[in-house]
Amino acid sequence: MTRLGGALAHGLTLTLALMSGACVRPEEGPPPGVLVVSVEKQSAWVRNFNPLMPGGGARWPTAGGVYEPLLVFNSVRGEYVPWLATRYDWLPGAEGVVFTLRAGVRWSDGAPLTADDVAFTFELLKRSPALDAGGVWRYLERVDVERGPEGERVVMRLKTPHVPALHGMAHTPIVPRHVFEAVADPVTFTNPDPVGSGPFTQVRVFRNQVFELGRNPHYWGGPPAVEALRMPAYPTNDAASLALIFGEVDWAGDFVPAVERTFVARDPEHFGVWAPPVGSLVFLYPNTTRAPFDDVRIRRAISLAIDRARVVEVGMYGYTTPANAVAFSERYARWQDKSLDGSPEDAVRFDPEAAERLLDEAGWPRGPDGLRRGPDGTPLSAPIDVVSGWSDWVRSGQVIARNLRAVGVDTQLRTLDFSAWFERVQKGEFDLAIGWSDEGATPYDFYCGLFNPETVKLVGALAPTNWHRFGDAESAPLFDAFKRATEPAEQRRLVDALQRRFVHALPAIPLFPNPSWGTYSTRRFTGFPTADDPYARLSPFAQPEALLVMTRLRPVDAPAGEVAP
């Protein structure tokens, strides 16, 4: 999940720096053909190219640039793009998936990439569960290799039918058996000299402050038009944004405050930004294990009291849109039942009068002091937990708190450092909290973490999703049926039913979709996705989707050619 995080906080610093006459930038740039990218924020680089290492310790773009998956999910178009596999087919009854491998793929050392490498990768995850970040072995029974006249195939057999498991299997980066089978401890292995299948595998430079990855001499898609990727070490968003604004970066995922004025206006012919709202939904989570948030009328009243247009304007600087009734971002636009927007149960409209009526109906009338009080006189009081320093969410929370106080709910924003906030939400030890949501190729993954009874954990246990501890018993058969549904029409029918259940039960309160932030400069390279050419997400954070971009970019003086895949 990619979020703006605390990036908005550096706006004043950046603006002052730009106004200062002391800002003098060096004139010398990178050599022709070298694409400068800003993704990670590090004061010094650590040489790590292990795509399976837990905790995200590997350098960008290890998981989608040095190494590659079987398929790449294009979140803008809502479809899988063949990559190391040319196709996938479901076994009868969704008992497994058959991946047909692309012929002629070689590792960067010249060795052939075969089905044995794919099977080895998944067996490695099984032997070292710490590497299985996507949890594919929760669903896998075994992995088989088949060879025939049509080429090599890998058969992923499942313990029980589970169609949504495709996403984790398809996006697992494949590693070379002849390298990793000799590694004593793959969990701590930093893989300093990678042998990959991706377009950029050759470590040309690696220093504390910069590293470069050159082209794979054996890339199956042909030599990339970009000669190399250069990643300078920027310790802060301020440093990265200044480099971007002064034209020293070609492609970035950094938020830039007042971007049209501070960045695009400096060179409108070449500088651009595109931030489609296809990221995960941001929610106000009510802890449904605590009264009165176990009452849907209270959750609905809180939702109706929130002025989402104001939240987006003030908290998010207008870079996203208010949530719709079913809480889908544009990632799931083709699934959305738009008839539920404006329906009687639509709770994302701003209607404080309706919120007041629901609070009265639920037994929480206003007292003499204007606060809502229960039958025993206890005020309806709950802090809103948010991460300190994530100023977009802090500002959003401040607007929400004012909205709730206006209808008589006694609330204040409570800022916590990330570790404290994350522990509270995972354990279910909060009243209200602003947080992100899960995402995947289909709305199943998204809704599963919001109201599937299977994801509910006891308070005190660490929950990766469903922090608010809500399970909708009526939805359980729909979730179970989706696991076996391979036909698009049946999947759509089930998702339509799940959307109606979400609107009715309102397990959590949707606020806005996270924008997928990306900026670019066409002074030296062309081919970036834009609103006019939305072939993929622009954000380099979107791995492995960034493969669709890096294989399409080319220097401004390079002739046009076919895209690798």
Brief synopsis:
This protein is of the alpha+beta class. It has helices at 11-19, 115-127, 166-170, 177-180, 237-245, 259-262, 296-305, 308-315, 352-361, 391-406, 418-427, 443-451, 476-484, 488-505, 546-550; strands at 34-38, 71-74, 79-82, 85-90, 96-101, 140-148, 151-158, 200-206, 210-215, 228-232, 251-252, 271-274, 281-286, 384-387, 413-416, 432-435, 509-513, 518-521, 525-526, 554-555. It contains 15 helices and 20 strands.
Describe this protein's structure:
25% of the residues lie in helices and 17% in strands. The strands form five sheets. A seven-stranded mixed β-sheet has the order 8-9-10-1-11-18-12, with no helix packed on it. It has 15 helices and 20 strands. It has 565 residues and is of the alpha+beta class. The protein is globular and about 80 Å long. Helix 10 (391-406) links the parallel strand 14 (384-387) and strand 15 (413-416). Helix 7 runs antiparallel to helix 9 (352-361), helix 8 (308-315) runs antiparallel to helix 10 and helix 13 (476-484) runs antiparallel to helix 14. The model is unreliable at 1-24 (pLDDT under 50). The protein has helices spanning 11-19, 115-127, 166-170, 177-180, 237-245, 259-262, 296-305, 308-315, 352-361, 391-406, 418-427, 443-451, 476-484, 488-505, 546-550; strands spanning 34-38, 71-74, 79-82, 85-90, 96-101, 140-148, 151-158, 200-206, 210-215, 228-232, 251-252, 271-274, 281-286, 384-387, 413-416, 432-435, 509-513, 518-521, 525-526, 554-555. Among the domains are: 5-21 and 34-46 and 193-277 and 521-555, Periplasmic binding protein-like II (D-Maltodextrin-Binding Protein, domain 2, 3-Layer(aba) Sandwich), CATH 3.40.190.10; 281-513, Dipeptide-binding Protein, Domain 3 (Dipeptide-binding Protein, domain 3, Roll), CATH 3.10.105.10.
